[in-house]
Specification:
By secondary structure, the chain is mainly alpha-helical. It has one domain. 39% of the residues lie in helices and 6% in strands. The strands form two sheets. Strands 1-4-5 form a three-stranded antiparallel beta sheet, covered by helices on one side. It has a two-stranded antiparallel sheet with strand order 2-3. Strand 4 and strand 5 form a beta hairpin. It is globular.
């Protein structure tokens, strides 16, 4: 498997463009009270690949209702950030998925390069094996896969079932499927293209 795209800033720029498209949809829908949504980004400091990221990764796209007395926040789903996790979603998926498929030396090199400690990796494993399978996102998604995806082998088993030429496209597809779990207050439908042909 080639992971060269992980060192390509165009890949991260593409993920930001997907997030922008999603954010435009959410902003166009407005607030449930009928108010207009204004930008209310909040800061993020993702770890692992900081040198490849531009200023777009220093904040999470979010909105706040302009109506006084409402001011409700709406944070769109994201393909960049996997909930509150400090590392980018692509890193959480890839490192956990490759945990059993990489030679020990290569795996250790990736973990050291991305500065991931063993406790963090354990938390990610637990999240994929216990938290994610119980989520509404997975409950809605799992019926699409026949035969069923082995929960004990997530996320690698899921990544291996997705279509796309190359790992970067499969990752974009999976990040799109996971996007609904990244925004607790959101319950719409995503319309997005996750084929990184512009890279």
């Amino acid at each position: 498997m080639c992971h060269a795209f992980l060192n390509d800033s165009r890949f991260y720029r593409f993920l930001f463009e997907i997030d922008q498209d999603i954010a435009h949809q959410v902003q166009a829908e407005g607030c449930s009270c009928g108010g207009v949504l204004h930008s209310a980004r909040y800061p993020r400091k993702p770890r692992g690949v900081r040198s490849l990221l531009d200023e777009a990764y220093e904040s999470r796209l979010s909105f706040c209702c302009a109506v006084e007395g409402c001011r409700r926040r709406r944070t769109p789903p994201s393909v960049r950030f996997l909930g509150r996790k400090v590392y980018l979603g692509v890193i959480v998926i890839l490192i956990t998925a490759l945990e059993h498929g990489l030679p020990a030396k290569r795996r250790q090199h990736l973990i050291e390069t991305l500065d991931i400690c063993s406790q963090t990796l354990s938390r990610w494993r637990k999240w994929w094996r216990e938290v994610f399978p119980a989520s509404r996102c997975w409950q809605a998604m799992r019926g699409q896969f026949i035969p069923p995806v082995e929960v004990s082998r997530l996320p690698g088993a899921l990544l291996g079932r997705l279509s796309g030429e190359g790992l970067s496209r499969c990752l974009c597809h999976l990040l799109g499927l996971l996007a609904p779990i990244t925004a607790a207050s959101w319950s719409g439908n995503l319309r997005m293209v996750t084929s990184p042909q512009k890279m």
